[in-house]
């Protein structure tokens, strides 16, 4: 069964991203949010609780031995 594939309109995506940046800048300027709050909102990993995440190995080798 064929899979439907959507094509990304890069120009539209660029406009969406710029609009998001503009909203963020306006919220910062108005004092609605702090830089820390905004960084937290824009962090895709924030809700995953990765603040204590660390990589201990890659494959079968400890990360400390890869330095």
Describe the structure in brief.
This protein is mainly alpha-helical. It has two helices and two strands, in the order ααββ.
Describe this structure in words.
It is a single chain. A hairpin with a 2-residue loop joins β1 and β2. With 67 residues, the protein is mostly helical. The chain starts with 9 loop residues before the first helix and ends in a 5-residue tail after the last strand. The longest helix has 21 residues, at 10-30. The protein is 43% helix and 6% strand. It has two helices and two strands. The chain has one domain (10-66).
What key attributes describe this structure?
single chain; 67 residues; mainly alpha; two-stranded antiparallel sheet; 2 helices; 43% helix
- Count of discrete domains: 1
Distance between the termini: 47 Å
* Order of SSEs: HHEE
Count of strand segments: 2
Strand-residue proportion: 5-15%
Mean pLDDT: 88
The global form is flat
Low-confidence stretches: none
Number of helices: 2
Assembly type of the chains comes to single chain
Global structural class: mainly alpha
Helix content: 40-55%
Strand order in space, largest sheet: 1-2
Instruction: Give the biggest sheet.
Output: 2 strands, antiparallel
Radius of gyration: 19 Å
Helix/strand layout:
Layout: H1 10-30, H2 35-42, E1 57-58, E2 61-62
Antiparallel strand pairs: 1-2
């Amino acid at each position: 069964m064929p899979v439907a594939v959507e094509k990304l309109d890069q120009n539209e995506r660029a406009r969406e991203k710029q609009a998001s940046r503009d909203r963020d800048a306006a919220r910062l300027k108005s004092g609605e949010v702090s830089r820390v709050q905004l960084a937290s909102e824009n962090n895709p990993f924030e809700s995953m609780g990765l603040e204590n995440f660390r990589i201990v190995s890659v494959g079968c080798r400890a990360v400390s031995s890869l330095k």
